[in-house]
Amino acid sequence: MRMIPGIVEMCSGPGSTGLAPCGTDGHEVHEHFDFVLTNVYPVQFHALLLALFASVVAPFGGFLASAIKRAYGVKDFDSIIPGHGGVMDRMDCQFLMALCTWVHFNTFVKMATVSVPKLIYLYNMLNESQQKEFLRYIRAKS
């Protein structure tokens, strides 16, 4: 049984009960936990981030739309897009969240493209021992 479920203790190991304080059972003394979430899928992590962001930032989309309407002296978006005033006024926050979701997806979720110049650049950033290890690994795979 762990003190906090889903978090792996830094000092737990073979033969440890998980409840013993660090420094016993032959382990080094540590005063912290290694924050490792178990059984969490990446989609859950991204959904949590977007939900937190939406709950904090999305209302500002409504404020922004209201500021635009006030700046142009219009009551609602019906005068800008005829027949769509009620729908557009309900979707003010969606504009900002659509932009933020797009940025989040392209920054954190979308797979990066791999090209030869990019690989050469990354290889040159490695130190000499890492370059040798990388080449050994590549040779062993081919």
Concise synopsis of the structure shown:
With 142 residues, the chain is mostly helical. The chain has helices at residues 42-72, 85-90, 92-109, 116-125, 128-141.
Structure description:
The protein is mainly alpha-helical. The chain is built from five helices and no strands. The longest helix has 31 residues, at 42-72. The model has no long low-confidence stretch (mean pLDDT 75).
Please specify the SSE layout and strand pairing.
Blueprint: H1 42-72, H2 85-90, H3 92-109, H4 116-125, H5 128-141
Helix pairs in contact: 1-3
String of helices and strands: HHHHH
Largest sheet: none
Radius of gyration, Cα only, in angstroms? 26 Å
Shape: elongated
Q: Give me the number of helical elements.
A: 5
> What is the residue-mean pLDDT, rounded to a whole number?
75
In angstroms, what separates the terminal alpha carbons?
Answer: 45 Å
Give the total of beta strands: 0
Task: Report low-confidence residues grouped into runs of 5 or more.
Answer: none
Helix content: 55-70%
Structural class category: mainly alpha
**Strand content bin:** under 5%
